[in-house]
């Protein structure tokens, strides 16, 4: 018997992740269409101009608050949530995993640390609930979402905002602050999409975030005790090298461009210091920021695709679990990857 | 589903906790909306001639720019955080990119003999179109 790679997400977590992703993508598209309006003018127009964009941003903003509060409450009131608290705290293993990742890249380690491993394969039981990147994502995104929600509420109403500050320019400076805060998350999400879309064993999307653990058999039928994760037994997708190179480049260009854009093109309609339309609104920056938005768009598509795969997985599982109809007297359909009932019973 | 023997027992979230959390989430979001709406004040009270500001008058606030030093500091702080974390995220992208290249090198090349290969999804190894669904 050996373990099969499986995710850690429950059904509720997969659903929450998809909804949060959709909401955050919409907030990014609308928010940065405003902040980077020089570069993303088409996005602003496409979503109904300034009024359309701000309306969508507000609606999804309230959606974000509902989702975040839902998740915090669930983690506090459920025993499953409470039992996970200790598992998200940073530990020495996380630092070791980061160092070993660097060594792995330099060829000084043969495999990634269990706390870094995305493809766990036969060694799935060694892998903790969250990798070191997973913990970073949880911490940074939690802090970001909280600060963004609070600052977002404070700038909800234009007149209320103006009343809080001495001058209109100061009010706009606070709006700028809100936008700059989101840049960290914007860059982080681009990396998140690359990390979980371009892993060679999971390409084009890591289904572990979409197919709940309860639907994935954990054991494989053979008896050998493998020494490796078993990745050497997988075939690389023919398009992986080309697509991962292009997408990796797009991710890097996107991150660099929004970072540069956030420094030079920070304010709307008036920047912190009065230099209207300031900054290098060059063609390169325009292309770069648009590439970043395409990376986000790919993430949105992959998230939807992950859900399509879950539905297909559910249907396939359902078909295989039905009592063998065998109207033709033949064998019921079997699948090489699914252990039969007897095997599983003896393993458990 | 008639038979789930080979599927794991998972400690999921109970329906009650999900329901309570949903209600709390929606109520808090509703209250937040109500609170934010309360910021609205009449246009009448805004931006009248403002003699207390030096050289004050209608529109003079645009000329003076941001007059709150704390905000300037906050923005500078966030700029720094953006740059530092941006650089860190870029390092992470490069580490993963390189790690993925090494992992890909450990895998079988497309078209290589796959008689002993297993699919990542535990499905049939010979039907390449079922691996990760990237049949194209």
Automatic annotation (TrEMBL), chain A:
Example GO biological process: respiratory electron transport chain
Highest taxon above the source species: Archaea
Biased composition (Polar residues): 335-348
A single GO molecular function term of this UniProt record: electron transfer activity
Membrane topology classification: Multi-pass membrane protein
Keywords: Cell membrane, Membrane, Transmembrane, Transmembrane helix
Chain intervals for the UniProt region annotation (Disordered): 318-348
Keyword Transmembrane appears in the UniProt entry: yes
Chain segments annotated as transmembrane: 12-35, 55-77, 137-157, 169-194, 243-263, 283-305
Ranges of residues in domain Cytochrome b561 bacterial/Ni-hydrogenase: 9-204
InterPro entries: Cyt_b561_bac/Ni-Hgenase, Di-haem_cyt_TM
Full protein name: Cytochrome b561 bacterial/Ni-hydrogenase domain-containing protein
Protein species of origin: Haloarcula amylolytica JCM 13557
TrEMBL record, chain B:
Chain segments carrying region Disordered: 111-136
Source taxon at top rank: Archaea
Parts of the chain that traverse the membrane: 12-36, 73-100
This protein's UniProt keywords: Membrane, Transmembrane, Transmembrane helix
Name of the featured protein: Uncharacterized protein
Record organism: Haloarcula amylolytica JCM 13557
